[in-house]
Amino acid sequence: MQTDRVPLGLPAVLAGPPPAAARPAGTGAGLTDQFGRVATDMRLSLTDKCNLRCHYCMPAEGLQWLAKDKLLTAAEIARLVGIGVDRLGVRELRLTGGEPLVRADLVDIIAVLRRNHPSLPISLTTNGVGLARKAQALADAGLTRLNVSMDTLRHDAFVQLTRRPFLDQVLAGIEAAARAGLGPIKVNAVLMRGINDGHAAELLAWCLAGGYELRFIEQMPLDADHGWTREGMITAAETRSLLAADFDLAPDPRARDGAPAERFEVRHRGSRALLGTVGIIASVTEPFCADCRRTRITAEGQVMSCLFSRTEVDLLDLLRAGTTPADDDAVADRWRDAMWAKPRAHGMGHPGLGDADFVQPDRSMSAIGG
Q: Is 3 contained in some domain?
């Protein structure tokens, strides 16, 4: 038994929705909740393992990984996606982790999903370590595009943030993905006070020059160490202020349309020439729960109706109980029930729901899947 890894407490796992939120008849065929939102964007975690140890996600010593037999198999992943697309109205799929590139059968999984769903947008969120070796194979298998997590262009800060010296691998992976046609490539960055908060403008300039779409993400209280504080977090407002020293930002006129990022057009200070766009995901200070369209499945087949859920609904037992159309109906019904119970909001930054109403989930981001 491993003793050098931190065990994470798991949220309550239910075989159905909380009794008080039972879904009434006639609520529709899709993933509708009791506040009128419909989830069409599926986030599916392929593994909880990761080869980085980012401060805002994992402790230095790592975590206790799930046993292999607890993970969704490739066939179960294909079945779940099929149920989501064919029965529940899923229109986009994002594969996440942990780090999905550590899964040996990743290319095969994508190839099967593409064969089953020729027009489904399939994206992947990765830390980019090892991406250079796999980018072309992922594109050939049918992956649509990539999000790459990279918080800085400076080697010393990268090591401080991730506890690993892999920045050159990440940069090579982004370049390989661009050559393979996996665009538009989005770069996800979390600013940490005193480490990389002074790097915001240079990271944006690099992304604009390379044709990448940068997304700054507020640090969320999903770290395994539970060290997050509101005071220590770089807010969306601070991020805009940091960028304003070099750039003029103006709201992107395109509709947000359920996207988590608020987009801004970017110009050099005093210039009218459009350089591109930047997005800011302000889950804490400027939450967008009212227009959330996401449904999340963890690597062991649990539905999380919200990224901050402390309750999950198990689909894996149904997946392993049988494979008839009636069995798929049972999976779809339980999935609908789980999403019907989605809370109105996660509690932070909402009128009438102060921080006192928010309780940090037991799982860290790596164990949830973004």
A: no
